[in-house]
Amino acid sequence: MKIIKMFVVVSVILALLACTRSQIATDDPKESWAVSRGSVDGAPLIVRKNRGALAVAKSREAYPYRVMIAIGINRVDENGFPIAEASNDLHQFEDKVGAALKNTDSVIAVVLTVPRMRQLVFYTAQPDTVDGVLEKMKQQESTLHWGYEVAHDPGWSLYR
Q: What is the mean pLDDT of residues 95-100?
């Protein structure tokens, strides 16, 4: 299990370092997202970065815990990315997680999609509360295979 966690963290770091920047604007004034594409060891990746995350958090020190949620993707195209139906399921799950964490003093910072996996990266001031919320979600029926990790990361090492 530790190897998988280490792979997830390393892949996010490499992805953020390897991406080229191609910013795409959204219509939501509360969020400012940049989308980058790149590759890690020849595998394609897509990174969505919430450029407004620090503005929401006020400072990195105020939200010193990283929450990484890894979601397996089974229905993929030839490149390992989700087909339309799977993308819809992933977006619904992201919305569900966002709604569940809404009152936990947390902010989404990065969404990384690599072949067969999507990773949501939040930063929070309330790690125990987030852990409880996500454990409760894990007990509910879900068509997606997912897991999470909460770790102390006061420097926001995955948010560049």
A: 93
Q: What is the pLDDT of residues 56-74, one digit of tens each?
A: 877 888 899 999 999 999 9
Percent of the chain with pLDDT over 90: 62
> 36 CB contacts (<8 Å, ≥6 apart)?
19, 20, 21, 22, 46, 47, 49
CA gap 35, 19 in Å, rounded? 9
Where are the alpha helices (H) located in the chain, listed in sequence order?
2-18, 53-57, 84-100, 127-139
Tokens of 42: 């020849």
More confident residue, 146 or 22: 146
For 90, other C-beta atoms within 10 Å of its C-beta total 19
Number of C-alpha atoms within 13 angstroms, CB side, residue 35? 6
Label the pairing between strands 106-114 and 117-124: antiparallel
The answer on pLDDT for 147 being more than 50 is yes
Residue 8 phi/psi, 5-degree rounding, is -60, -50
